[in-house]
Design a protein that fits this description.
This protein has a single domain, classed as Alpha-Beta Barrel (TIM Barrel), CATH 3.20.20. The chain has 321 residues and is an alpha/beta fold. It has an eight-stranded parallel beta barrel, surrounded by seven helices.
């Protein structure tokens, strides 16, 4: 596959079947290392690029359509989730031309509330699972977490990997757990959260990305948003290179979700530039790129309304949800 051009081979290669931990280790060891300084310099350079004024409205609508509108607090209530779902369907109640967001992301026990409120809409219901955000639980408990969310109607599952197992070299254990979670997902798409801020090096981020994709991930995701370092442009670049190279090697398309710390339309547009310049325009779609966010939507709506009015608007014009 030529992922940059979005051209599929008539008979694309297939992802290798991993039959042993030794085979997995050999494949991950064969990956080239990441030039950390080069990745950071390229990300910084891409961050200086701007989107033309004539294209800005379309870019803002694209960002809205890529958002997983998220609430993951211990104080979440059915009423708060219902309100969030209403906003997900109609981000600006006064303007029907504003697209719906991609998904609403909640804890598993609130999936039923979200499913009922979003009935008949295009908005997916995503649930975090596998002992989010720590990932510290037995595999049996993690799989029950996934099964409960799927049974309640989740379209997408956001799982966390066991970072301790990965960092201590128990790669087969991490791989097998993702395979088991993918099976438990049934029809639901699986997003694998790498928690890149805890993986220490870009090389680890690249290896974890490939491990997750080989195990069946439909998306790879930067972070839970619950640690000090979440999404960054250089890390996003490494993930996007990984999905691009994986597509070219296997013919299978895997998405990327960036989450944590992305609060402004300006920041989100920088990510769009990195997506386009690294993986290609094929990934500029909610099916292959997402923002995990709670506060981002309001800033994008403000900037969009500014495009229409030609003047700044107040944050109070939009709901706080």
């Amino acid at each position: 596959m030529d992922a940059r051009a979005g051209v599929r081979l008539l008979d694309p290669p297939r992802a290798p079947v991993i039959a042993s931990e030794a085979q997995l280790r050999a494949l991950l060891a064969s990956l080239s290392g990441v030039d950390a300084a080069g990745a950071e310099a390229r990300a910084a350079k891409l961050a200086t690029r701007s989107i033309k004024t004539s294209s800005k409205r379309a870019a803002l609508d694209m960002i809205i359509s890529m958002i997983d509108l998220t609430t993951l607090e211990g104080a979440d209530t059915p009423e708060r989730v219902a309100s969030l779902c209403d906003k997900a369907r109609r981000p600006d109640a006064r303007d029907a031309s504003v697209p719906s967001v991609a998904a609403v992301c909640v804890y598993a026990d609130l999936v039923g509330t979200a499913r009922a409120r979003l009935a008949g809409s295009t908005v997916a219901v995503a649930a975090v699972a596998t002992a989010f955000p720590s990932g510290r639980a037995s595999r049996r408990v993690k799989l029950l977490d996934v099964e409960d969310a799927v049974a309640a109607g989740a379209d997408e599952i956001d799982m966390v990997i066991d970072r301790g197992a990965f960092l201590s070299g128990r790669l087969g254990e991490v791989f097998e757990e993702i395979v088991a979670v993918k099976e438990a997902c049934q029809h639901a798409h699986l997003k694998v959260i790498l928690e890149t801020g805890e993986l220490v090096t870009y090389d680890n981020v690249r290896r974890a990305s490939w491990l997750a994709m080989l195990a069946g991930a439909d998306f790879i995701k930067t972070s839970t948003g619950k640690v000090g370092v979440s999404a960054t442009l250089p890390v996003a670049l490494v993930l996007l290179e990984a999905v691009r190279d994986f597509a070219e090697s296997t013919g299978r398309l895997v998405g990327v979700k960036v989450a944590g710390g992305i609060r402004s339309a300006k920041d989100a547009m920088r990510y769009l530039v990195v997506v386009n310049e690294t993986a290609g325009s094929l990934w500029l779609s909610p099916t292959l790129f997402r923002f995990g966010a709670s506060s981002l939507l309001n800033d994008v709506l403000m900037q969009r309304l500014r495009q229409v009015r030609g003047a700044y608007v107040r944050p109070q014009e939009f709901s706080a949800d």
